[in-house]
Every structure is written in C-alpha cells, then in structure tokens.
Amino acid sequence: xxxxxxxxxxxxxxxxxxxxxxxxxxxxxxxxxxxxxxxxxxxxxxxxxxxxxxxxxxxxxxxxxxxxxxxxxxxxxxxxxxxxxxxxxxx
Length: 91
Fold this sequence. Notes:
The structure is a single chain. By secondary structure, the protein is mainly alpha-helical. The protein has a domain at about 40-90. The chain is about 55% helix and about 5% strand. Strands 1-2 form a two-stranded antiparallel ribbon. About 15% of the residues are buried.
C-alpha cells in the first residue's frame, strides 16, 4: 500500500486520513512542535503542543487514555516530517 494513501479505518465506518492532520501546519509551526516533543521527552511529560490533535484522535479513535492518542499523534507527526523532507528527493 502506498503510504501517502494509507488511511485508518475506524469502528463505525469513519475514516481518518492520518497524513492530513498536519497538512495545513507551516514548517515553522512544525519546528516548534518538534522542539516541544524533544523537550517534553527529556522532562518526561507529554508535548502540550500536540494536545489538540491528541484530544481529537482520542475521541475519534476511541483511545482509553490521552497518552495513547499522544503517542499516535507523535508517530503521525514524524511521518509528516518525513513526507515533507523526502517529497522532492528523486530516488
């Protein structure tokens, strides 16, 4: 499956295109989120800048705990970073 077309099928028939979570976020905002992720990891807390996305996914994906949704959002974040970085590289 092409990763850029990968979607998460949720119970109830709803579909979330996980690559669109950060599509409208500027590179500068992504950098600030990245700094928050790194700093939060060092301090052993969750990155607060991702809370709006985690809360949305917690409800949509029916995660029991916010940390589960946050971990998923971090994974999606890094996928978006990789897409932005590698999209113009021919190989």
